[in-house]
Specification:
With about 220 residues, this protein is an alpha+beta fold. The chain has helices at about 35-45, 55-70, 130-135, 155-170, 175-180, 185-195, and strands at about 5-15, 25-30, 75-80, 85-90, 95, 100-105, 115-125, 140-145, 200-205, 210-215. Helix 5 packs across helix 6 (about 185-195). The two termini are about 35 Å apart.
């Protein structure tokens, strides 16, 4: 498995609030890829441990099933040295006139019945010991200046997006955001502009509670 030379980051302009004139900037982590099970097994072997993919998969599958079952039973899970898993609950959303999903407003608490409650996600809070190990590690931080282009013309954007689409096909807002290094706000704004043009090159389709973006004519 290829090793990277430390923790990479990019610097981005912070969106200005109404009335602000001064441009400020913030930092974000820049990662190259998401490692899969095979990569993790290779990395474990790199450190001298004897493990094969089948054994790793069996252990992880069993752990996954136990986590799901126990969370569904109403428990929080704390794996010492790793962290805490908790369910995040919310209420159902409704689709507005703009085509987007919006949170419902409840004026009467009795209206929030069991049918209205949904699982929004699973939160993970790392143990302090794990965070301390990461923070105490003398990491080398690498600024990837080329990973983000502050000023990107429409022509450059469409050219890069066409190449991205040719390689990956239909994409989500999240994939677009990661590819171009945009904030979620800016990615949403740009995609909305692209699909709202008089002769749009891209359009969007519903995909669960979100959207997938496709090239016009495909």
């Amino acid at each position: 498995m290829a090793k990277r030379d430390g923790i990479h980051y990019t610097v981005h302009p912070t969106p200005k609030r109404k009335g602000e004139t001064e441009q400020t900037y913030h930092v974000r982590r820049h990662y190259f890829t998401t490692l899969k099970s095979e990569d993790i097994v290779d990395h474990i072997r790199y450190h001298g441990s004897i493990v094969d993919l089948a054994t790793y998969s069996l252990v992880m599958e069993s752990l996954k099933e136990e986590i799901v079952e126990l969370l569904q039973s109403g428990h929080d899970l704390h794996i010492e040295g790793l962290g805490r898993f908790c369910l995040q609950l919310g209420t159902r959303k409704t689709r507005g006139k703009d085509g987007r999903m919006h949170a419902k407003r409840y004026l009467n608490p009795e209206d929030i019945t069991a049918r209205e409650v949904v699982v929004k996600g699973i939160s993970f809070t790392p143990d302090k010991a794990m965070l301390k190990r990461i923070r105490d590690y003398h990491a080398h931080f690498q600024h990837d200046k080329g990973a983000y282009t502050e000023e990107l013309s429409r022509g450059e954007l469409l050219k890069r997006l066409a190449a991205f689409y040719e390689k990956n096909g239909p994409f989500t807002r999240r994939a677009f955001q990661l590819e171009f290094g945009f904030s979620r706000y800016r990615a949403d704004k740009i995609l909305t502009q692209l699909v709202s043009e008089p002769y749009p090159k891209y359009y969007r389709e519903e995909w669960g509670h979100s959207y997938v973006y496709k090239k016009t004519g495909t």
